[in-house]
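Section: Multi-chain targets

For targets with more than one molecule, the full set of components is provided together so that the structure can be written out for the assembly as a whole rather than chain by chain. Components appear in the order listed by the source. The example entry contains two components.
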Amino acid sequence: MNPELQRNLWLDAPVRRLVGTAAVPVLIFLIVWLVDRGNHPYAIVIVGGAMFVGAALVWAPREARAAVTDEVYARTWDFQRTCALAPWTLTWGKLVGATARAWLLAAFSLLIAFLQLASVTRISHALFWVIVAVGLGVLMQSSGLAIGLIEIRKGRAAGRPPGQRSMGLALLTLALLAAGAVVWAHTHMVWSADLHGGVLTPGRQPLMWWGAAYDPVKFAGISLGIFAVCAVGWAWRLMRLELQLRNMPWAWVGFVVIAALYAAGFNTTPDADVGALDQRLALAGAICALCAYLGALIEPADTVRARQFLKALNPVEGLNLGGLIWTTPLIAKPMALTVILLVWDAMIRNRDTGAPQALLALATLAFLLRDLGFIAALRFSSPGRGDFGVLMRLALLYVAGALVGRLFGGANGPALFIPTLNPAGLSLMSGAIQAVLAWAWTAWRIAKAPDPQKADPQTVLSSN
Amino acid sequence: MIDAENVVYDYPSGRALRGVSFVVRPGAVLALVGPNGAGKSTLMRCIAALDAPTQGAITVQGIDTQDDPRAIHASLGYLPDIYGLYDRLSVRQCLIYAARSRGVATDAAPAAAEAAAARVGLSDRMESLAGHLSRGLRQRLGIAQSLVHRPRVLLLDEPASGLDPEARASLSELIRGLAGEGMTLIVSSHILSELEDYCSEMLMLREGEVVGGGVVRLDGLATPGADTEDGGAPESSAPPVLVRVSFAVPASELLDPLGALGFSVSHIEDTDAILAIPSGTEAQTATLSALVQAGLPVRSFNLVRHTLEETYRAAAKGPASDTKTFGDEA
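Its structure, encoded as tokens over all components, is:
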């Protein structure tokens, strides 16, 4: 048996606790049956689904995160980091072992819900939803472990342990809920899926992706499975970093490109050929921008690494390509792809729809660069600052800027603070100036950090 | 065995190690000393491949810590200054997990756990929960976990911190035993008296830099008995040590017979003579035997020992060189 799995089972899943965990769903289903008496065919399915959500999508991700952050609190993480286990062994040992009780509860709930759903619909239909549920669980749980590892890395750079509460996990849950709502709205409202009849079936038309037609529900299920595999890979790569192994940077670029191609495949106006490329570029650009935001938030604000990157980039000392491979920030590659895609998009818009639309695309790009610089500056000025605080400041910048612009600048005022068509040129100019200022602020923050060669060693070591 | 070359380590708040270079011989017990904040723990973490140096390189048994950190992890044992245990696991479970996670085969892990427990005197506590152990016993369990896979190199960061005198004595005995088996140890402490009993070499750090010229051999201070890689006899090239011989008559009257026997007298005090002899137990035995056989009235025969404190001060003031020996300084 995987030693890490065995240790987790010793700690968290002794027989007594497993029996107690298994007794909970039995008791709940018994109560539901006593109350409902089989009158409502979906009562068991709904309760089972809710219990699965609680166990697999809330409890298990928390446990997966705690599987690494608790090691830091208990000061056993260095002991684990110096073990001889392969990163993958450690990853799956934690994913399975630390969440064993949560998955016992989830599996029991899912089994009962599956049996009930299969009895009132079809086995294949029920099985499809089981696969979707497991995919969701794996996605969330792996992301929970990855978020825990990111928090450890960020905490190390900030000289403090990870926080007890995980804003990353909360944001991920919200993002997943939002994505779920979008998928549901898309299938239910556009394709008129029949939820009430017990079978979610496509309505008027199938989903078009890169010109081919797909069943939207199955497409969503398969997409979920692929993203779940990506999440497991993400956790594994972060575990490798914690074990001091170097990750080749191509996987991140590859993920961004594939995600951009995935998004570009959707055609929101399947009947119109005009502007299809424009739309695809915008969607791909949006995904690359999202990855850049993600990279800006998850990478440790480490001035040592930032200086190494700047040194490797310094043309005076000679470009150090080897150094660049290992020190290039996560945001660099998606940001470069976004610039390429949005400039391309602007050129097409300029040709097809005129200059204002092109300027809007460029203004959006300028504000994206401003945002990334703003996030970097905030994080380098206080590496311990939480992601939520950074995002709130960014949101405040947009809201307050738009209000101030409206109050003092009239109808054109908001263009100074948000990318808008009225007027797009002003928006572009303002965004570009702000982007330059934000990145200058970041550079100043990195330069202002204590020079390692001049810092007092006593102060250095007492603070670490 | 361990070779550090111009190691620099930067924290975001500043530089912790400033071009540290040194070599540790196989089988040596190196005392890593220096005041709080000198960079000892950072250096230990770099050797253990837990942190990558900003510049420079460290090799352990010929393996670069940055090229193959996992091989380093598998090949050494490391006990940090502040460490935790799995409090809800028994001592046996802790040790079996440590063994298995460090590459010991499944069927060999229970025996390895038993052996490690026996080594640190925890055999009678195998079923106790780690959380129920006293501080001294927790320290023993921590050490047992770090050596359960029988590493060739063991790093102990402030191992005696917070231990009572009895537990410290046990720790000294354990480290002497490990050194006697040929293990290479680096033991850090800012309390020099802790290290006197078992260290054969010393490296001083201050403000992230090596002071005292590099690794200092402590031949006149401690003799763990493992000066060579295979744990055999000391190196023939080892520098001489000093012995204090007390005679029944004034030592000044015995200068001629001592010279005739080929001894180098470095100092005399009343009835005592300080002789420089080759290092090692055999040389000491031969010296005493020669003195007695020559009919000299020997009353006592002792190796001259310096406290580590004295050696530390002397080395800190001394000129720079790759390796210094203080056994020949009276």
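The domain at 2-217 of chain B is CATH 3.40.50.300 (Rossmann fold).
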